[in-house]
Amino acid sequence: MKEKCGLFAAFSTSKTDVIPLVTIGLRGLQHRGQEAWGIATPTMNPFKQNGLVTDNLDQSALVLQQMKSNIAIGHVRYSTAGGTSLSNAQPFSINKKFCIAHNGTVCDLNSVNTKLTGKKPRRINDTSIVGKRLLSILKTNNFDWFKSIELLCDELVGAYCFVILTPDNEIYAFRDTRGFRPLCIGWHKKSKTYLISSESCAFSMLGAELTRDVNPGEIIKISNKGLESHSFSRGERTAHCSFEYIYFAHPSSVIDQTSVYESRRKLGQMLAEMYDLNADVVVPVPDSARPAALGFSEKSGIPMVEGLMKDRYAKRGSQRSFIQPKYKERLKINRWIMPVKSAVDGKDVIVIDDSIVRGISSKAIVKTLRNSGAKSVKILVTYPPIRHPCRAGIDFPTHEELIAYNTSGKNSDIDTINKKVGKSVNADFVGYNTVENLAAGIGKKPNQLCMACHDGEYGVLNRNLSNETSE
Fold first, then answer.
1. Same domain, yes or no, for 211 and 275?
2. Which Gene3D superfamilies match (predicted)?
3. Which of 126, 175, 319, 354 has the fewest CB atoms inside 10 Å of its own CB, making it the most exposed?
4. Number of structural domains, the chain?
5. pLDDT tens across 281-335, in order?
6. Binding-site residues from annotation for [4Fe-4S] cluster
7. Is the domain of 204 the same as that of 306?
8. Which residue range(s) make up the domain with 266?
9. Would you please indicate which residues are annotated as catalytic (active-site) residues?
C-alpha cells in the first residue's frame, strides 16, 4: 500500500479536550486525503469514517463528543492501492498496546512482514504491518520507545512519517532520515497544546503557531514532561519530495522553512523567463497552479484571468482529481472544471499547470478552452517531465500511465518531450520546467530534493527500485 495522507496530533498540557482541535486540524489537511479519516485517543478504540471530515458531521459529532480527551492523533487517507474499505482507514490500534497512523510508503513491506511472521503478507497494508513489527521490537527492548523506533527505522526502506499514541498518554512522531514527507510541530497558546501536523496550514486554521519542522531522522515525544527529541539521523542527504511544493501541499503551508506559495509564484516567474510566448491571457488550472500563474503574469505582463473554475457546489467539484484512486473518479471531477467563456473567447491562451502526469486533465482542458472559443492554447508546466514511476507514495506507479514516457521514452531532451506531449494533448505548445529551475524556485539545491519520477534515480530510497513494480 502506498499512501500520501495527512497526520495530526494534539497534547494539551492544560487538560483541554483536544478532539475539536484534531477534527479541525484534519479538515485543514483534507487536501492530502479524501477517502477516509479517523481519530484515536488513549482508550485505543479509534473512530473512523469514510469520505470527508465534513461528510455526515452531525452523526460523527455524536461520537466525537463522547471521546473527550486531552490527547489524540488523527489521520486523513489517500490510498493508491489496497482499496477504500473502512478497514483500511487509520489510525490502527495495534493489539491495544498503541495506536499508529502513517503518511508515506514502505517499499520493503514483504521484508518487514517476513521478520515479523516468516511469511509474505496476505493483505497489503504497510501501516498495520509496521505497527505489529514495532510491537515485536518493543517487547524485546523493554518498551524503550526511542530505541525501538530507531531499530524499526533501520529496517524500513521508503518515505514515511508516523504518529503513535500510547495508553500511557504519550505521543511519538518521527520522520524518515531523508525527510521525504513533511512533518512539523506547533503550539496552540489558548489551550496550551502541543501539535504535530503533516503541514502548517492546519495550525493556521486553529490560530496556532508553527514552532518548527520535525527534522529528518528525528523522533519527537510529547508527554506530561513536555516535548523531548531524539535523533537517529546518520547524515544522509535530504530528499524532500519536490511534488509537495508544486502540487500536493497547501499553498499557505511552510515546509522545511520554505513557503509553498512563494515557491509556486517564483516558479511561474521563472517559466516566463524560460519561455517567451505571446498571448492575450494567462489561465491557471485550479487550484494549485494559481500562484504560478500569478508569477508568470507578473513577469510577462500578460494579464491573468480565471478562465477555468471548479464547481464548488457539486459534490466532487472541490475535490482533487489527481488523488482519486480510480480513472472514472478522476473523469467525474474533471467534468466539473468549467470554462469562463467571456475570459477566453477569441483569445490566445497560456494555461499554467503544476504538472502533467497522465495527460487526462490536460486533454480535457484544451478541449474545453477550444470549445469556448480560444484561438490557441499553450500549456506551461512548473514541474519537469514525469517519466518514471514514483516509489515513494505518489499515485503514478507504472511507466505506462505517464504521458511523457509514452510519447517520448526515458531519455528524450526537453524540446522533443514538449513537442510530443503537446501533440498528444492537442495543445498548440507545451513547455515543461527544468530540474535546475524547479530547485531554484523552491529555494533548495537539486541534490536536496527527490526527483526520481523525473530521472529514475531511486538511490535516495537506499535501494535499487527501478525494476520493481508497486504492491
1. no
2. 3.40.50.2020, Glutamine Phosphoribosylpyrophosphate, subunit 1, domain 1
3. 319
4. 2
5. 999 999 899 999 999 999 999 999 999 998 766 554 455 455 444 545 544 545 5
6. 241, 390, 450, 453
7. no
8. 260-445
9. 5
